[in-house]
Known about the structure:
Elements: E1 4-11, E2 16-25, E3 28-38, H1 45-63, E4 67-71, H2 79-98, E5 103-106, H3 108-116, H4 123-133, H5 145-160, E6 169-170, H6 173-179, H7 181-184
Parallel strand pairs: 1-4, 4-5
Antiparallel strand pairs: 1-2, 2-3, 5-6
Amino acid sequence: xxxxxxxxxxxxxxxVMGYGILRVVGNKPELLAMGVLDLKKYSDHYLKxxxxxxxxxxxxxxxxxxxxxxxxxxxxxxxxxxxxxxxxQGVAMSAALYRDIPITEYAxxxxxxxxxxSGAASKEQVADMLRRFLKIPQENMLPQLDATDGLxxxxxxxxxxxxPVSEKAYSGWKDFIAKNQGRVKGE
Length: 187
């Protein structure tokens, strides 16, 4: 009997959080779910963070993933936007750590390269490749590309399975602390 693995992929955001969930049996991935958490209606940043934590936890409790693949924030020019995005990512990671789910971060460039072969690929190109790879009917594709961005993180992780991963991976709070001594001590 082939081993099954469930991968939760998240594209963090404080306006829209995208997610995708894959079931992998042997070497065959299958889409379980994808969607978005729309946070536009909330003006309070802390309420948005609470919603991200709650939704991530509910996805974990519903689908019981073996791991979380999350898109790492890219470096932008707006410091405030970067801080908010980092908080959103941290809250989603906290939910996974709360349930002892191992985490792997992937840079957006790495995800695009893994899916399309080009780090300059558009969100639409990534979505179309995922639709083809996973045989998702066009009518089941969501208009929000944040959903396929979350799915892309999960698919990137699937492609990396069995290969050494150069991105940061954490198996729990103790592992996170051990690998991030400078951050934990406020350095």
